[in-house]
Each structure stands twice: as C-alpha cells, then as structure tokens.
Specification:
This is ATP-binding cassette domain-containing protein. This protein is of the alpha/beta class. It has eight helices and ten strands. Helix 2 packs parallel to helix 5, helix 4 crosses helix 5 and helix 5 runs parallel beside helix 6.
C-alpha cells in the first residue's frame, strides 16, 4: 500500500480530516493506527476501503491505484475486507448467514442477487468460523450473542471474503482486556497466515505495540510518527495524546 500526499475534507466541512498523508506499507505487514478521537483514523480506513470520493493525492492499494472520483472496480472490491467498529452484522440472521455474506463479492452478480452460495462458499465460510473459534455458533442468531462473539462473527465474515488487505476500525474497543487481546491475536494471526496486510485503529497503545509490526501515529489528520513497533518510545505515544491543538472538528480542541 502506498499513499502519497493524501488530503481529504468530509463534504460540508472546511477543515481537512486528512492532511498530506504519506505512508508506505509493505505487503503482509500489520499496522496499527494510533491517535486521539477525531484524529482521522476512521476516515483513513474508509478511504483505503474505497468508500470516499473527492480526495487529493495518490493512493495505491494492492497494486492498483484508487480513483478519487469513483469506487473500486467490482472485481477488486473483495480483496479488501473491513471489520467495522459496530460490527455491521444482520442481527436477525444466523451467524453462518452473516459469514456467508462475506462471500457475496466473490459471487457472480446473479448468484449474489439470489443469495445462492456454492459448496466452495459454504466450505470457506465454515473454515472462517472454525478459524475464529465459533463453529459451534453457526446456527445461532446474531442478536443472541455477546459483544466478543459478535466481533468474532465480524472477523469471520471478513476472512470468508478471502481479502488480501484487512482493515479494522477499533476492532476491540468494546471488549475487556483479555477478550481484546484474543481478538487481536485472531485478526493479526489470520492476516499473517494468509499473507494479508492488516491495518487496525486503536486507542490502546499497549495492544498496538503487542500486535502490530508498525505503528502510525495520527493527530489532526496528519501523520505524527510512522515507526517499526520496536522504535516507538513512550514519549512519542504520550505526546500523541497530548497534542490535540491541531484537531479539526468540534469539541476536540485543547481548551485554553
Ligand atoms: N461524515 C463526516 N462529516 C463531516 N466531518 C466528519 C465526518 N466523519 C468524520 N468527520 C470529522 O473528520 C475528523 C476525523 O474523524 P475520524 O472519525 O476519522 O477520527 P478518528 O480518529 O477515527 O476518531 P475516533 O477515534 O473518535 O473514532 C473529525 O474532525 C470528525 O469530526
């Protein structure tokens, strides 16, 4: 993944959410995005997922340039998997049906429309459930699950998609420390086993250090540091959360 001089302002906003960001992420690396609320982490992940229009700069994901004016080609979309902070699951469907939804982008448009999966789709979904340790939950409805179980379903759905890039927006924000470590073990382990690149945002520097090979600090839409995890100092992390003066958006500026 290569990002050069990337800037973006949300529609209707005068302030940039991302400002002149440049990053180079080698294939297969696990990267954590750290930064205070409103720093731009979600925006960057959404942009890399091909969901935002009208940005400036150059961005190449999995060897193909993203176009600021149009969404990625349908054929390329399943290569990037996204784990949403709020899971984005179909609450009244079963776990298996949700995980099979991860296969939709790999089906022909007609099959996807009819929701008819092949035996390969089913095998892939079941393997993803097993990898996430929730094979026994396959027939349970999502609305009967705990937060940690839902998070596993969201990751299983992402893995069923067979992505080469996994983007995850605060994947462990609602979990206790032990569950959070389990989920990040799962996410980064699955990415490594598949040779996939992983990028996740977090508010927990300790977990980022433990599970990412590279840590990118963002504040006020800018990259403040971009270092191998072993080079990240406590001071740099502390400063990242102290430095809120440049934060765009309401309610986030340092009060003088
Ligand atoms: N849809 C939107 N419209 C206008 N401004 C937005 C929108 N989404 C985010 N922003 C603004 O863009 C900036 C970056 O927000 P973003 O959600 O990317 O930050 P973040 O680092 O993910 O924060 P958090 O850790 O709280 O999730 C903020 O100033 C925010 O208010």
């Amino acid at each position: 993944m290569q990002i050069d001089d990337l800037s973006f302002a949300h529609p209707g906003s005068d302030l940039p959410a991302l400002e002149r960001i440049s990053l180079l992420v080698p294939t297969g690396e696990s990267v954590a995005l750290l930064g205070p609320s409103g720093a731009g982490k979600t925006t960057l992940l959404a942009l890399l997922d091909g969901r935002l229009r009208g940005w400036q700069g150059r961005t190449s994901v999995l060897g193909a340039s993203l176009d600021p004016d149009r969404p990625p080609l349908r054929a390329r979309r399943p290569d990037t998997g996204f784990v949403f902070q709020e899971f984005a699951l179909v609450e009244r469907s079963t776990v298996l049906r949700n995980v099979l939804n991860g296969r939709l982008g790999r089906m022909s448009p007609l099959r996807a429309l009819m929701g008819s999966s092949t035996s390969h789709d089913l095998e892939t979904a079941l393997a993803a459930l097993a990898d996430c340790g929730i094979a026994d939950l396959a027939e349970r409805r999502v609305d009967s699950l705990s937060g940690g179980q839902r998070q596993r379903v969201a990751i299983a759905r992402c893995l069923a998609q067979e992505p080469r890039l996994i983007l995850a927006d605060e994947p462990v924000s609602s979990l206790d420390p032990a569950r959070a470590a389990e989920i990040l073990t799962l996410l980064t382990g699955a990415a490594r086993a598949r040779g996939a690149t992983a990028m996740f945002s977090s508010h927990q520097p300790d977990l980022a250090r433990r599970f990412a090979q590279r840590i990118v600090g963002i504040s006020g839409g800018r990259v403040v540091f971009d270092v191998p995890t072993s080079d990240l100092s406590e001071e740099a992390t502390a400063n990242l959360y102290r430095d809120t003066e440049r934060m765009p958006g309401v309610g986030l500026r340092a009060v003088s």
